[in-house]
Amino acid sequence: MTRIVVVSAGLSNPSSTKLLADMLGDATARAVQARGAEVEIGHVELRELAHELTDNLLTGFAKPALQAAIDQVRRADGVIAVTPVFSASYSGLFKTFFDVLEQGVLDAKPVLIAATAGTARHSLVLEHALRPLFAYLHAVVVPTGVFAATDDFAGGPELPKRVDRAATELAALLAVGGGAPSAPVPHRTLVEDEFANPTSFETLLKRASEGPPEF
Known about the structure:
The protein is α/β, with parallel strands linked by helices.
């Protein structure tokens, strides 16, 4: 069973962000099934978790609904992440959710990125904001991102083509992984790790007094 979770940060109801998220989820399900695999699509609506996300930032603890969403992402073989564009970037609600994920949750996990906005002028948000974010989180970002302006939902073949292409690419990445949980990823060395067991000043002085090692 291939598990995919769709994370949508739309605020309004109805929401163009949710509409695009549903399109991508449906297209990915078809693409995975076309490869002969079973698929399970889960949905995380961040609008419903806004208060719990704020509480988590303040307390460091996730309430049940938020924890369930985090667990969905952790168990998923792939993620579809869709945000509205606010101030030329992803929304604060969207970023907050990925801020509260534990380190390593997205390591080596395929992620399809998508965004919505009023005009096509914001289309580069995929490359200058979303792709760097998920690269930093060590996810494997699908080559094709999907951006949809308001006019794209009026009809025409272009948006469905982009959706199908991105979904096919995500399905291909999932097929490489076999839809199975990935192997544990080695611990990433962080700056703070270098200070976990510092060498004492006394030891450093002793080494210096002994001179360079002989070879």
